[in-house]
Amino acid sequence: MQVRITVRGRQYTVRSDESEEDIAAVAAELDRRMEDVAGRARSMDEYTVAMLTALNLASDLHRLRRQVADRLEDMDRDAASVAALLESCLPVQEGSR
Q: Is the dihedral of CA 81, 83, 84, 89 positive or negative?
């Protein structure tokens, strides 16, 4: 599907398998973030605004991936603890000693 979006006053046609609503929401978030970056220093050209925004987004993604990895490690430890606890509660079967 093709969707028209506007970022920093410029229109783009985007081709994606995502829904039009999702693409519009992503474009609006990108536009907001670029406006925030541009507002910090009015003398930046559009390329610099785009690059700094991309770096901010990459930083956010990196932090979120690290948080997910940490939570998955915690869940693995918790699951291993629960499995050990459950095994300790099971009766010993004849012939397994």
A: positive
> For residue 90, what are its two tokens?
């099971």
**Whole-angstrom distance, CA of residue 53 vs CA of residue 35:** 9
Which sequence spans correspond to the domains of the chain? 2-89
H or E segment and range at residue 48: helix 46-89
Taking the chain (97 residues) in runs of 10, the rounded mean pLDDT of each run is 96 96 97 96 93 98 98 97 92 73
- Amino acid at residue number 25: A
If you compute the radius of gyration of the chain from its CA atoms, what whole number of angstroms results? 24
Yes or no: say if 34 and 54 are a contact pair by the CB < 8 Å rule.
no
Phi-psi region of 8 (alpha: psi -120 to 50; beta: other; left: phi over 0): left
State residue 42's pLDDT score.
84
Q: Give the per-residue pLDDT at 92.
A: 82
Element (H, E) at 15: strand 10-15
